[in-house]
Amino acid sequence: MALKVESFTFHWKPDYPLALAAKRYQDPSSSKSDGYTLVFAHGTGFHKEQWEPTIKHLFNLSRNSSRFPVREAWSVDCPNHGDSATLNEELLLRGGYDLVCKPRKLKHIDCKLIYF
Q1: pLDDT at position 24, please?
Q2: Which listed residue, 13, 44, 59, 107, has the most CB atoms within 10 A of its CB?
């Protein structure tokens, strides 16, 4: 199954100076308007693309299940990893910034958390 993949960059200036790179995955053959939005964050030393095999597998499971509908999945690079590090290179080299991703900035999204 080929997923639709879109890349995004999020900026929260002036509250937070660093940008975050993210990818959104959707099944183009699905017409699900309801369902879970899955959000994946990576561990230290990795990047958002490490989740792609897992995301594909979960979409395959969702396709045959009414109990676990997946509408979309997001994977996010932390500010000093992957594409986010490239976006933030100048600020990261200067130093002095909190590198923790700021989930409170996503408070407008109504989501259910699923832990793997």
Answers
A1: 97
A2: 59
The strand ranges marked E within 1-116 are 4-12, 16-26, 36-41, 70-76
Neighbour-count burial for 8-45, b at 16+ CB within 10 Å, e otherwise: eebeeeeebebbbbbbebbbeebeeeeebebbbebeee
Show the tokens assigned to 108.
């407008």
How far is it, in rounded angstroms, from Cα 68 to Cα 53?
Answer: 18
- DSSP letter, residue 80: T
The per-residue pLDDT for 30 is 81
- Pairwise CA distance, residues 100 & 104, whole Å: 11
Residues 59, 82: Cα–Cα separation, whole Å: 24
pLDDT digits (tens, 9 = 90+) for 5-38: 999 999 988 888 889 999 999 999 887 678 899 9
- pLDDT tens column, 39-82: 998 888 788 999 999 999 999 999 888 788 899 999 999 888 88
